[in-house]
Specification:
Strand order of the largest sheet: 1-2-5-4-3
Number of strands: 9
Distance between the termini: 44 Å
Helix content: 40-55%
Number of helices: 7
CATH topology: Beta Polymerase, domain 2
Oligomer: single chain
Largest sheet: 5 strands, mixed
Radius of gyration: 15 Å
Number of domains: 1
Amino acid sequence: MSRPTKEELARRLLKVLIDAHVEFFVVGGVAAQALGLRKKINDLDIVYRRSRENFRKIVDALTPLNPYPRGLEPGVDVPWNVSVLRDGYSFVTVTTLGDLDLIAELSGGGTFRALHQQTTRRIALGWECDVLNLIPLADHLIESGRPKDVRLAERLRAMHRRMR
Protein backbone atom coordinates (compact mmCIF):
# COMPACT_ATOMS: atom_id res chain seq x y z
CA MET A 1 0.00 0.00 0.00
CA SER A 2 1.34 3.45 -0.91
CA ARG A 3 1.89 6.18 1.63
CA PRO A 4 -0.68 8.99 1.65
CA THR A 5 0.37 12.24 -0.01
CA LYS A 6 0.76 15.44 2.00
CA GLU A 7 -2.49 16.64 0.41
CA GLU A 8 -4.34 13.50 1.55
CA LEU A 9 -2.97 13.93 5.07
CA ALA A 10 -4.04 17.60 5.09
CA ARG A 11 -7.50 16.48 3.90
CA ARG A 12 -7.77 14.03 6.81
CA LEU A 13 -6.53 16.67 9.25
CA LEU A 14 -9.11 19.17 7.98
CA LYS A 15 -11.85 16.57 8.52
CA VAL A 16 -10.71 16.04 12.12
CA LEU A 17 -11.11 19.77 12.82
CA ILE A 18 -14.49 19.94 11.08
CA ASP A 19 -15.80 16.89 12.95
CA ALA A 20 -14.67 18.45 16.26
CA HIS A 21 -16.63 21.65 15.42
CA VAL A 22 -13.51 23.77 15.81
CA GLU A 23 -14.16 27.40 14.82
CA PHE A 24 -11.60 28.27 12.15
CA PHE A 25 -11.09 29.29 8.58
CA VAL A 26 -8.55 28.03 6.07
CA VAL A 27 -5.69 30.17 4.73
CA GLY A 28 -2.45 29.43 2.88
CA GLY A 29 -2.11 26.94 0.06
CA VAL A 30 -5.28 25.02 0.86
CA ALA A 31 -7.28 28.26 0.69
CA ALA A 32 -5.58 29.21 -2.59
CA GLN A 33 -6.48 25.82 -4.02
CA ALA A 34 -10.09 26.10 -2.80
CA LEU A 35 -10.28 29.48 -4.53
CA GLY A 36 -9.28 27.87 -7.82
CA LEU A 37 -5.50 28.15 -7.99
CA ARG A 38 -3.57 25.04 -8.95
CA LYS A 39 -1.34 24.54 -5.94
CA LYS A 40 0.61 21.67 -4.43
CA ILE A 41 -0.40 21.19 -0.79
CA ASN A 42 2.28 20.66 1.85
CA ASP A 43 0.39 21.49 5.03
CA LEU A 44 -2.84 22.88 6.46
CA ASP A 45 -2.94 26.48 7.71
CA ILE A 46 -5.90 27.69 9.75
CA VAL A 47 -6.84 30.81 11.68
CA TYR A 48 -8.74 29.80 14.81
CA ARG A 49 -11.12 31.63 17.14
CA ARG A 50 -9.55 32.39 20.48
CA SER A 51 -12.11 31.29 23.03
CA ARG A 52 -12.01 28.90 25.97
CA GLU A 53 -14.50 26.56 24.27
CA ASN A 54 -12.57 26.54 21.00
CA PHE A 55 -9.25 25.95 22.78
CA ARG A 56 -10.83 22.86 24.35
CA LYS A 57 -12.14 21.63 20.98
CA ILE A 58 -8.70 22.07 19.38
CA VAL A 59 -6.89 20.29 22.20
CA ASP A 60 -9.39 17.41 22.24
CA ALA A 61 -9.32 17.01 18.45
CA LEU A 62 -5.54 17.13 18.10
CA THR A 63 -4.33 15.28 21.21
CA PRO A 64 -4.79 11.84 19.58
CA LEU A 65 -2.66 13.11 16.66
CA ASN A 66 0.32 13.91 18.91
CA PRO A 67 0.89 17.56 17.93
CA TYR A 68 4.51 18.58 18.33
CA PRO A 69 6.37 21.79 17.43
CA ARG A 70 7.74 21.44 13.90
CA GLY A 71 11.52 21.74 13.85
CA LEU A 72 12.03 20.87 17.51
CA GLU A 73 14.18 17.81 18.04
CA PRO A 74 12.14 14.76 19.09
CA GLY A 75 12.06 13.81 22.72
CA VAL A 76 11.65 17.26 24.26
CA ASP A 77 8.64 17.24 26.58
CA VAL A 78 6.24 19.86 25.22
CA PRO A 79 2.85 20.28 26.90
CA TRP A 80 -0.31 20.35 24.78
CA ASN A 81 -3.31 21.73 26.64
CA VAL A 82 -5.77 24.61 26.83
CA SER A 83 -3.31 26.78 28.76
CA VAL A 84 -0.70 26.42 26.02
CA LEU A 85 -3.21 27.53 23.38
CA ARG A 86 -4.49 30.37 25.54
CA ASP A 87 -1.00 31.67 26.27
CA GLY A 88 0.33 31.33 22.71
CA TYR A 89 -0.72 32.69 19.37
CA SER A 90 0.68 30.57 16.59
CA PHE A 91 1.65 26.94 16.63
CA VAL A 92 3.62 25.40 13.79
CA THR A 93 3.10 21.72 14.44
CA VAL A 94 3.59 18.30 13.00
CA THR A 95 0.93 15.68 13.74
CA THR A 96 0.48 12.05 12.82
CA LEU A 97 -1.67 13.40 9.96
CA GLY A 98 0.89 15.89 8.72
CA ASP A 99 1.82 19.51 9.26
CA LEU A 100 -0.65 21.97 10.74
CA ASP A 101 -0.16 25.68 11.36
CA LEU A 102 -2.57 26.99 13.99
CA ILE A 103 -2.62 30.76 13.62
CA ALA A 104 -4.36 33.13 16.01
CA GLU A 105 -3.40 36.26 14.07
CA LEU A 106 -2.20 36.72 10.52
CA SER A 107 0.34 39.43 9.70
CA GLY A 108 -1.21 42.87 9.88
CA GLY A 109 -3.79 42.16 12.58
CA GLY A 110 -5.75 39.38 10.92
CA THR A 111 -7.52 37.68 13.81
CA PHE A 112 -10.43 35.28 13.43
CA ARG A 113 -12.79 37.96 14.69
CA ALA A 114 -11.42 40.63 12.33
CA LEU A 115 -11.38 38.45 9.22
CA HIS A 116 -14.19 35.92 9.56
CA GLN A 117 -16.61 38.22 7.70
CA GLN A 118 -14.17 38.04 4.76
CA THR A 119 -14.53 34.27 4.38
CA THR A 120 -16.77 32.16 2.18
CA ARG A 121 -17.96 28.57 2.55
CA ARG A 122 -16.07 26.56 -0.06
CA ILE A 123 -14.96 23.05 -0.74
CA ALA A 124 -11.37 22.67 0.47
CA LEU A 125 -9.70 19.29 0.02
CA GLY A 126 -13.14 17.75 -0.42
CA TRP A 127 -14.73 19.25 2.71
CA GLU A 128 -16.95 22.29 3.11
CA CYS A 129 -15.45 24.90 5.40
CA ASP A 130 -14.79 28.63 5.69
CA VAL A 131 -11.98 29.91 3.46
CA LEU A 132 -10.46 33.38 3.50
CA ASN A 133 -11.47 35.25 0.34
CA LEU A 134 -8.98 35.84 -2.46
CA ILE A 135 -7.97 39.48 -1.96
CA PRO A 136 -7.63 39.36 1.86
CA LEU A 137 -5.68 36.11 1.47
CA ALA A 138 -3.30 37.72 -1.04
CA ASP A 139 -2.92 40.78 1.20
CA HIS A 140 -1.98 38.69 4.22
CA LEU A 141 0.40 36.51 2.24
CA ILE A 142 2.23 39.66 1.13
CA GLU A 143 2.24 40.98 4.73
CA SER A 144 4.06 37.83 5.84
CA GLY A 145 7.05 38.91 3.75
CA ARG A 146 8.10 35.31 3.09
CA PRO A 147 9.18 34.96 -0.55
CA LYS A 148 7.07 31.83 -1.15
CA ASP A 149 3.99 33.60 0.28
CA VAL A 150 4.61 36.70 -1.85
CA ARG A 151 4.86 34.51 -4.97
CA LEU A 152 1.59 32.79 -4.04
CA ALA A 153 -0.07 36.18 -3.49
CA GLU A 154 1.09 37.33 -6.93
CA ARG A 155 -0.45 34.20 -8.49
CA LEU A 156 -3.72 34.85 -6.63
CA ARG A 157 -3.85 38.46 -7.79
CA ALA A 158 -3.15 37.42 -11.40
CA MET A 159 -5.99 34.90 -11.15
CA HIS A 160 -8.26 37.63 -9.78
CA ARG A 161 -7.40 39.94 -12.70
CA ARG A 162 -8.24 37.18 -15.19
CA MET A 163 -11.60 36.58 -13.48
CA ARG A 164 -12.70 40.23 -13.81
